[in-house]
Protein: 1-acyl-sn-glycerol-3-phosphate acyltransferase
Amino acid sequence: MFYYVLKYVVLGPLLRVLFRPRIEGLENIPEEGAAIVAGNHLSFSDHFLMPAILKRRITFLAKAEYFTGPGIKGRLTAFFFRSAGQIPVDRSGKDAGQAAIREGLGVLGKGELLGIYPEGTRSHDGRLYKGKVGVAVMAITARVPVIPCAMVGTFEIQPPGQVVPKIKRVTIRFGEPLDFSRYAGMENQKAAIRAVTDEIMYAILELSGQEYVDEYAAKVKAAEQGAAPPKKFRGLRR
Structure:
C-alpha cells in the first residue's frame, strides 16, 4: 500500500514536477508478465526517478547497507526502502552473487518487473562500466526479456557525495526488449552468460551515449582511491 502512496500521491508527482523527466520508449515496458529492466546507475536519484514514471510496480535489489544504517537517518532510510518493496542484498562474501540471483528469480517467478543495475554499483565518474553476469543468469534461467534503460542527466543533478540533488531536467530511455531464448539451458556456461551480459551493456551504451570502460566499476574505483584521484567527469559522449 505504502508503495502506491509514494508513487501516485507523494513522491511520484513531486519528482515529475521538479525534474520534468523526458521519457522515451516507455511502450517497450510490457504491460504484464515478468521482465528485467537493466539500466546504468549514475546517481542515488535513479532509485526514485525510474519507478516514478513506470506504470507498473518495479522491485530493485538494493544493497543491504540501505537497510542497516545507524541512527534516525538509517532507520528512516530502511523504512523507506522496505515500504517501497525493495529487497536488501548483502554484497559481501563469496555467496553474495548467488543470494542476489535467488532473490531476483523470486521476483520474476511472481510475474513482476525486476530492476537491476548490472554494473553492481553507482558509477563514480559518469562512465559506463563492465556488467556483472548475474543479470544474464536470471534472464536465461527465468526465460524473460531484458529491457535496457538509460538514465541521462542524473549524474549531473546528484553525483556521488552530493546529498541534495540539483533541480534539472533528466531523460529516461527504454530500449526494445532483448530476447535471449536462444541461450536456454546455458545459464551455467561462462561464455554464454558473458555474451548475454555484454549484449545488454552494449544496448545500454547505445541509449546513454556514455564512455564505456571494460573494467568493473568497483575495481576501478578502489584502484583510483588507492592511487591518484579520479579524473574530472567531462560529460556524456554524444
